[in-house]
UniProtKB/TrEMBL annotation:
<dbReference type="InterPro" id="IPR007236">
    <property type="entry name" value="SlyX"/>
</dbReference>
<comment type="similarity">
    <text>Belongs to the SlyX family.</text>
</comment>
<feature type="coiled-coil region">
    <location>
        <begin position="10"/>
        <end position="44"/>
    </location>
</feature>
<keyword id="KW-0175">Coiled coil</keyword>
<dbReference type="Pfam" id="PF04102">
    <property type="entry name" value="SlyX"/>
</dbReference>
<protein>
    <recommendedName>
        <fullName>Protein SlyX homolog</fullName>
    </recommendedName>
</protein>
Length: 79
């Protein structure tokens, strides 16, 4: 087995440290991108929920108008 000299050992440790720092940097960047994407998705989900709520309200009004009992309505003004 090959023994490293103190200088070689320091260089190897330095190379490992640089590689680990690069990995952490890339992971931090990926995490920030995913966090931003999640925030965008949540905002879009909230907008979709609001839109769906309005559409359901409108649908309820249309159904009420379509299925309303004609006897419940007052007679036209010419009667």
């Amino acid at each position: 087995m090959h023994e490293f000299s103190p200088n070689e050992r320091e260089q190897a440790l330095e190379a490992r440290l640089v590689e680990l720092e690069m990995r952490v940097s890339f992971q931090e960047q990926a995490l920030a991108e995913m966090s931003e994407a999640l925030a965008d998705a949540r905002m879009q989900g909230s907008r979709n929920a609001d839109l769906l709520r309005h559409l359901l309200d409108d649908l309820g009004k249309v159904r009420t108008a379509l299925y309303a009992d004609a006897a419940d309505e007052p007679p036209p003004p010419h009667y």
